[in-house]
Amino acid sequence: MRKAKPKKRYLLPDPKFQDTLVTKFVNYMMHDGKKSVAYGIFYDAIEQVEKKAGGENGLEVWKRAMNNVMPAVEVKSRRVGGATFQVPVEIRPERKINLSIKWLIEYARARGEKTMKDKLASEILAASKGEGAAIKKKDDTHRMAEANKAFSHFRF
């Protein structure tokens, strides 16, 4: 076990929107330390979202998509007397954000469009409307927690 909790690292806001959440999203999306490339992809995707959403603010659509993808509960494995149970646990706010970012990026990458900005833009639009693979993942997580509600008395 660790002696002390590691210090919380705070991110600098992004250059365009002055939002730390955008920086966090870009950091998750970045490959091989190429942050400027990741920023370019994100900003282009937000521009595309603005065009497709009919002039609505792209950043607001993205934030709505993030909120739609955020799960409230998840299941964690817990061993009790030789058997492993999937115990539903509420998610702390920090992890909610991290999971929604991870899922949006993961399912954007899995899409069929040609470039990453197209993939990301269409995944953001789908998530903001309450559809798409990232939303399906959230629903599956909730469904799994609901199905294992009987084991909630094994909470940590």
State the order of secondary-structure elements, H for helix, E for strand.
HHHEEHHH
Uncertain spans, ≥5 residues at pLDDT below 50? none
Stated plainly, the CATH topology of the domain at 20-25 and 34-72 and 92-145 is called Ribosomal Protein S7
Can you give the mean pLDDT?
92
Subunit organisation of the chains: single chain
Radius of gyration equals 18 Å
Helix proportion: 40-55%
| CATH homolog superfamily of the domain at 20-25 and 34-72 and 92-145 | Ribosomal protein S7/S5
Distance between the termini: 17 Å
Please report the number of helical segments. Answer: 6
- Strand arrangement across the biggest beta sheet: 1-2
Secondary-structure-based class equals mainly alpha
Largest sheet: 2 strands, antiparallel
Percentage of residues in DSSP E strands: 5-15%
The CATH class of the domain at 20-25 and 34-72 and 92-145 is Mainly Alpha
What is the 3D shape? globular
CATH architecture of the domain at 20-25 and 34-72 and 92-145: Orthogonal Bundle
The number of E-state strands comes to 2
Describe the structure.
The protein is globular. The longest helix has 18 residues, at 35-52. It starts with 19 loop residues before the first helix and ends in a 9-residue tail after the last helix. The model has no long low-confidence stretch (mean pLDDT 92). The chain has 6 helices and 2 strands; from the N terminus they run αααββααα. It has a two-stranded antiparallel sheet. 25% of the residues are buried. The protein has a domain at 20-25 and 34-72 and 92-145: Orthogonal Bundle (Ribosomal Protein S7). Helix 1 (20-29) packs across helix 2, helix 3 crosses helix 4 (93-109) and helix 3 (58-69) packs across helix 5. It is mainly α and 156 residues long.
